[in-house]
Amino acid sequence: MAGKRVTIRDVAISAGVSYQTVSRALNDKPEIDATTKERVLDAARELGFRPSRFARALVRQDTTSVGLVIPDLLNPFFTEVASAALEAARKRGWHVVVYDTAGDGEQELGTLEVIGSQVDAIVGYLNAPADVVARYTGGIPVVYIGRESAGASFGSIRVDGEAGIHAAVAHLVAGGRCRIGMLDHEHAAPSARSRWYLDALRSHGLSGWVLGAGQSVEGGEIGVAALLDAHPDLDGLLTYNDVIAIGAVRRARMLGRRVPQDCAVIGFDGVQIGSLVEPPLSTVRIDTRQLGALAVEQVATLLAGATPEVTTITGTLVLRGTA
User: Which residues are listed as membrane-spanning (predicted)?
Assistant: First the structure.
């Protein structure tokens, strides 16, 4: 393979094993039989494999390494999830490397290709089809966050905010709000959250408006300005996440709307910064500490050779100053 650096992926293909098995063989870990180990070492010698300094650091003997893949480190929700996962992994003595895909599909596949041969397991927000993820990760354990699992080597943690969004709409309606809009994810519209919102409105005999917004404070500002321009009597607003909600509150007040008197706002995620803005943000809270801890727990189950049950984290309505 002149001109191209030989990778763990090449050794795994040559030996007919997973990347994880190659890692364990090269580091003389005990969870591999002698025949398989010898086959891997023979393939490595034949190909002239030399592990990179980075790969050697990640696959040190007796150290379990986990790749954590998230779409946006600037979004405090994902930062909180990463922090919780790091804390849970640290308690087990594991090594965690965090990757930010910027919500881009090609970047996600590139990330999986890089880390699939360098870690023992992967946790993250992955959008690629399960067969594609399996092809890029070579059979190592994968824990999905926010989607269903697919196969024995996959774990899954679902985030269910339906009850929380129904509770949010019910609270707004009980307060006399009847012209309620939503700022959705601009790239995922219609999202499950907007479907829950519309279902909740219908249960109260109401209809509403959904507008895609950028996943940022600026996206919330632009989105609420557009909604208020189209519907000046808007008196309630739900948002895809708290970051959008913070921007929406800011711009609504700049446009002369009192929050919550003229227009109540409820976000989604429950990030800590929401309690620090003025007025404090009402939200559908997801327990990020539980989410991160469960992800690491599922990795441990998969590494032990078992298949974890799908776990669901349910969102709950937290009322503060904006609704």
Answer: none
pLDDT digits (tens, 9 = 90+) for 176-219: 999 999 999 988 778 999 999 999 999 999 999 999 999 999 99
Q: List the alpha helices (DSSP H) in the chain.
A: 8-15, 19-26, 34-47, 53-58, 76-91, 105-115, 130-137, 162-174, 192-203, 217-230, 242-254, 288-303
Going by C-alpha positions, the residue among 268, 320, 317 that lies closest to residue 170 is: 317
The tokens describing 149, both together, are 């699992």
**Domains plus CATH for the chain?**
8-159+289-315 (3.40.50.2300), 162-285 (3.40.50.2300)
Instruction: Please state, in angstroms and rounded to a whole number, the distance separating the CA atoms of residues 171 and 160.
Output: 19
The alpha helices in 122-213, defined as continuous H runs, are 130-137, 162-174, 192-203
Q: What pLDDT is recorded for position 50?
A: 62
CB-count exposure of residue 47 (10 Å: 0-12, 13-18, 19+):
middle
Distances (CA, A) of 114 to 185, 193, 222, 313: 28, 32, 36, 30
Could you give the maximum distance between any two Cα atoms of the chain, in Å?
A: 74
What is the Cα–Cα distance from 238 to 284, expressed in whole angstroms?
10
Among 3, 1, 2, 6, smallest CA distance to 49 is for: 6
Which of 320, 150, 138 lies closest to 245 in space, CA to CA? Answer: 320
Q: Say what the pLDDT of residue 218 is.
A: 97
Question: pLDDT (tens digit, 9 = 90+) per residue, 259-311?
Answer: 999 999 999 999 999 999 999 999 999 999 999 999 999 999 888 778 888 88
Alpha carbons 166 and 201: distance in angstroms, whole number = 8
- Give Cβ neighbours of residue 175 (< 8 Å, ≥ 6 apart): 264, 323
- Walk across the sheet containing 180-185 and list its strands: 209-213, 180-185, 236-239, 264-269, 282-285, 316-318
Token pair for 35: 């025949």
Mean of the per-residue pLDDT values for the chain?
88
- Say which amino acid occupies 4: K
Q: Are 155 and 299 in contact (CB under 8 A)?
A: yes
